[in-house]
UniProtKB/TrEMBL annotation:
Transmembrane segments: none annotated. It comes from Nitrobacter winogradskyi. Residues 30-145 form the Co-chaperone DjlA N-terminal domain. This is Co-chaperone DjlA N-terminal domain-containing protein.
Amino acid sequence: MLDRLRHFIVDVISPEAPETRSFDETGCKLAATALFIHIISLDGAPSDVEIRKLHELIETRFGLDPGTANKLITSATLAEGEAVDLYQFTSVLMRSLNDEDRLRIVEMMWELVYADDHVSEFEENVVWRAADLLAISSRDRIKLKHRVGSRRSAPDPAT
């Protein structure tokens, strides 16, 4: 079992990952999606609204069709289940993304936290730890939290 985990970690972080994988499976999209899976799984099984929000974010922000998004989410769920910490995912993102893109990842994490209209201290703590590992300042993390939170609490103009 340890060998399998070691091979998985090498596959995820290795710059010479096999080119037969699709949708950036060994890079940013997989790492970010695994973080997202971790966030929505913190308070038990993800709710339908959290799953819908995850699909929406993956499809729109990563520009994936629903089938490819499903494959990515499946792979990320497996990766997250085998992960020992957040670092194996955040390190991939740190190597591959610029400051602005890492801010977007943290914003997406907040969107998932707020998806079910309940923010737990566990969710806040994981976003804080991930943001810290992504070199996002506390000020920026809190600013993103408030921005996403205010969008969630704003009345819907369509109603």
